[in-house]
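Dear colleagues,

For the upcoming journal club I promised to circulate an example of a predicted protein-ligand complex. I picked one with cobalt (II) ion because it came up in last month's discussion. The inputs are reproduced below in full, followed by the predicted structure.
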Amino acid sequence: MITALDHIAIAVPDLEKSIKRFMEDFDLEFNGTEEVVTAKTSTAFFQVPATRIELVHPLNGEGPIAGYLEKKGAGLHHLCFRSDDIEADVERLKAKGYQFLSDAPSLGAHNSKVIFIHPRSCDGVLIELSQPGDDR
Ligand code: CO
């Protein structure tokens, strides 16, 4: 039986820079680095609270996911970090030079406020910030 999503791995060209990003910019708890000689990799792990898997599919065959599937096919689409003050986090990250896909948060699933950081600002990974709405 599957018991948990154990981890998500992101390939990064500059480990120190990415560690700094996840610690300082995304406020995640750093668990340290390990050189896995057998796999010829240096790894860094960060603790995150219990999470969920989101499957995303085009609504009525259109929208950004339709474009994504057409261009890249099925695959890992984005990571989403929960925020308790999305406007403040957007402002803080913009000041650090992060580029966003829109100017301000919009309404997402479960009445949450969401905004996406451009993949070029984050090692090629699309990052969503989400502030839960009142109904969850
Ligand atoms: Co999402």
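Two points we might discuss: The mean pLDDT is 93. The helical segments are 15-25, 64-72, 86-95.

See you all on Thursday,
B. R.
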